[in-house]
Amino acid sequence: MQSSSSSSTYAQIQGTNYHHKTKKVHGSTSDIISNLPSNVIENILMCLPIRDAVRTCVLSSKWRYNWVKLPQLVFDDMFWKILGENQLSTKKKLLVNMYQVFLLHNGPILKFTLSISGLESCSEIDQFILVVSRNGVQEFTLRIWNGEHHKLPLSFFSCLLLTHLNLRTCVFEPPPTFEGFSRLTSLVFYEVLISADTLASLISSCPLLDQLSLESFAIFDHLEIVARNLTFLHIRANFKTVRFINTPLLAIVSIDLKVPIDGQVFKEGGTSNMIKLFDSLPVENLDIGFHYVKSLAAGGIPEGLPTTLDHLKILKLSEICFGEPDEVACVLLLIRSSPNLQKVRIEASTIVSPISVTDGVLEFWNVQGDSDVSWNQLREVEMRFISGMKTELEFIKLILAKSPMLESMIIEPHSKEVAKKGLRILKGVIRFRRASPNAEIIYEDPNED
Description:
By secondary structure, this protein is α/β, with parallel strands linked by helices. It has 14 helices and 18 strands.
């Protein structure tokens, strides 16, 4: 009975007639294939898309049922493409193929992925989740690409062996009895509907969590992260404050707001709420996005951060407008507050500010040039997408003059400015005084391969 079903499933997934297409293999090649060690066979099958794994049942009688014990089921765009548009033109046909695979599968399902472009929420997904929840799933990916959010069924929260979780466009509402995923090491949420309290509770109840990625258009008033083993964090969401508690291993943080929000949202007593982030941020590598810098500058820049960033070694800032005084002051504040900073990468914005505003920035740089500030640990600086504004060049001049240990300054103009200003930018920079005798100016043309 199983042999007939297996052949039928193969034929439908293959999109051809199984009985007419197969050819019997004779000789030593058949013996080699038939007698491969089971662990080798499993490794081969795990490298194949599901359809190709099913096709191996025709290699020999000993291979007929190997694929049904495959510990991973991956239904992704490759699965969709292999089936072909002619065969798979409706959601119903997709589900039929998935049902057939699940029907014949026999054994643990350690990895489950359902991520097909255009996939929408449907009740059948819950049935698949129920099956994998009963088969020891450890890596779970569900990405809904179109339509409404998919509410995770109760069976999902019984997947207590999870080590990797990746969700897109889902609703995460655990039952009151849910106590977290004690083995989870990697968590990725993209547009997942979840309250700030539930998210904080989830993170704190995953003691082995090492990597966390969160992107959402939802607004979180206060985001609290308690994760003693967390080393990597990526957040691109709308929040007023973020607080880190007991994150001693956190080394790499990339943070930004999803969309710009009215600056008044961030102000408290004349200072941006975003400044509170640095109260508890013991990181070595920090990447701050454009919208976050804007919010950090809302309400004015304080003289200093709540605490110095003693651990910070690498700082990346995106889309900085060197014609805006608050953004320029924010950049300098972060660099000045990081005594052990070794590398800075800044991507400039192409927005042009009024002359009256840039005059204020130039005056600001002149004041800084006369100060006794010095960045003694700074080794590398990258200035990307610059347009040749005088305010940009004055910043480069300041860095060169105040960095006695600098080894390299990389200059990359915006691709649209190379022809008009590329050479002028380079000539201007190489004339600046350098505090470090070993500082090398490296010009990179964005239009060259």
